[in-house]
Amino acid sequence: MPEPPPLACVSWNKDGVLLRVRVQPRASQDAWVGLHGDRLKLRIAAPPVDAAANERLIAFLAEYLGLSKSRIRITHGHASRAKTLLLEGWTLADLPDCLQQLS
Questions:
Q1: Which CATH class is domain 10-100?
Q2: Cβ proximity of 41 and 27 under 8 Å
Q3: Which residue from 6, 2, 16 is spatially nearest to 75, judged by alpha carbons?
Q4: Which long-range contacts (CB under 8 A, 24 or more apart) does 73-76 make?
Q5: Residue range 28-40, pLDDT digits in tens
Q6: Does an H or E element contain 62, and which?
Q7: Torsion sign, CA atoms 54, 60, 63, 64
Q8: Residue 61: how many CB atoms within 10 A of its CB?
Q9: pLDDT given at position 5
C-alpha cells in the first residue's frame, strides 16, 4: 500500500526525508510556528552570524525529533531563510504525528 501524500513541506528520497523550512532567526525562543506557504516555519533564537542559526536549527530539530545531529543536514539554503534539510535514514512514516497533522 502506498504511503499517504506528504505535506507540501516534506518529501522523501533514497537518503531520507527532505524537510523544507523557513527560519526566522533572532527570535525570543526556539519554536515551531506552522506552515508558511509550502514550508514549515520555525523561530530560532540564534542570530544568523557565523552559522549560529544553522547550528541551532539542527540542534533544535535533533532534540525535538530524537535524532542525532549528525543525521540532519542542510542540503540547500545555508545562507538563506528558506532551507531544505535532510533527515538521513528516515521515511515519511517516521515523522511525528504533529508534523503529519499540519496539513
A1: alpha beta
A2: no
A3: 16
A4: 75/18
A5: 999 999 888 889 9
A6: helix 52-65
A7: negative
A8: 19
A9: 45
Cα 57 to Cα 27: distance, rounded to the nearest angstrom:
12
| 47-55: long-range pairs with CB below 8 Å, 24+ | 51/78, 53/23, 53/25, 54/78, 54/83
Question: Which 3 state secondary structure label does DSSP give 85?
Answer: strand
| Residue in this structure with the C-alpha cell 532551507, named with its chain if needed | 83
Per the confidence metrics, is the pTM higher than 0.90?
Answer: no
First to last CA, the chain: 21
State the pairing for strand pair 16-24/82-88: antiparallel
Domain range list for the chain: 10-100
Name 31's Cβ contacts closer than 8 Å, sequence gap at least 6: 42, 43
Q: How confident is the prediction along the chain (103 residues), in pLDDT tens digits per residue?
A: 334 445 788 898 999 999 999 999 999 999 999 888 889 999 999 999 999 999 999 999 999 989 999 999 999 999 999 999 999 999 888 887 766 555 4
